[in-house]
Amino acid sequence: MDIAHELRTPLSILRGEIEAIQDGISQATPQTIQSLHQETLHLQRLVEDLYTLSISDSGSLTYHKTTLNIAGLLRETLAQFDAPLKEAQLILTSEIINIANVEGDSQRLQQLFQNLLRNSLRYTDTPGKLHVTLTVTSNQVSISFEDSPPGVPNESLPHLFERLYRVESSRNRATGGAGIGLSICHNIALAHDGSISAEPADLGGLKITITLPRTTENK
């Protein structure tokens, strides 16, 4: 995957729209400004993800771990995505227990959740569904994100968390994606002595499950 292409695309759009305004071909309407703003945000997120992946791969990404209720953190993150999911016509349902303590970095774990939610927003056909669950056993917490079609070919599932890997299928369609977010999720899960895996979802799309050690406070 050519990461330079991912950087060039938003830059080309920004340059094209700005030059069109400069040449008098188009006007700086609110819609044009909004489009420029969205491309700027996309470029900023891409650069930030590349930086995060780089320092994570080198082992330099810092983690400030405390005992936290990951169930509350998950509900908080889902609430942040309520409006974008509704706008994308994705119906969100969840089954989350009240308390599930883990030893973790709240900022990094929230980043993991945000990346998975953005993944569903980007790739799930609309109207669609997203189902999130959090369950516990005596020694671990399991969190699953399951969405509706399109799915991922079985041969691609083992590679989803590889650096810069992209699925060449309808799941990737015109929405693009640099193949960075899931690699970051993988590194964050490992840094918490956990794991992350992917499998076909009962809803017809992709199911991603994170497992983390449960702290003794829960036992």
Walkthrough of the structure:
This protein is of the alpha+beta class. It folds into two domains: about 5-55, Helix Hairpins (Orthogonal Bundle); about 65-219, Histidine kinase-like ATPase, C-terminal domain (Heat Shock Protein 90). It has helices at about 5-20, 30-55, 70-80, 80-85, 105-125, 180-190; strands at about 65-70, 90-95, 100-105, 130-135, 140-145, 195-200, 205-215. The longest helix has 28 residues, at about 30-55.
Question: Summed up, what is this model?
Answer:
The chain is of the alpha+beta class and about 220 residues long. It is about 45% helix and about 20% strand. About 5% of the residues have low confidence.
Mind telling me which CATH architecture of the largest domain this is?
2-Layer Sandwich
N-to-C CA distance: 45 Å
Number of domains: 2
Largest sheet: 5 strands, mixed
**Which strand-content bin applies to the residues?**
15-25%
Low-confidence parts:
170-176
Helix content: 40-55%
Number of helices: 6
So, the CATH homologous superfamily of the largest domain? Histidine kinase-like ATPase, C-terminal domain
Radius of gyration: 19 Å
Coarse structural class:
alpha+beta
CATH fold field value of the largest domain: Heat Shock Protein 90
How are helices and strands ordered from N to C? HHEHHEEHEEHEE
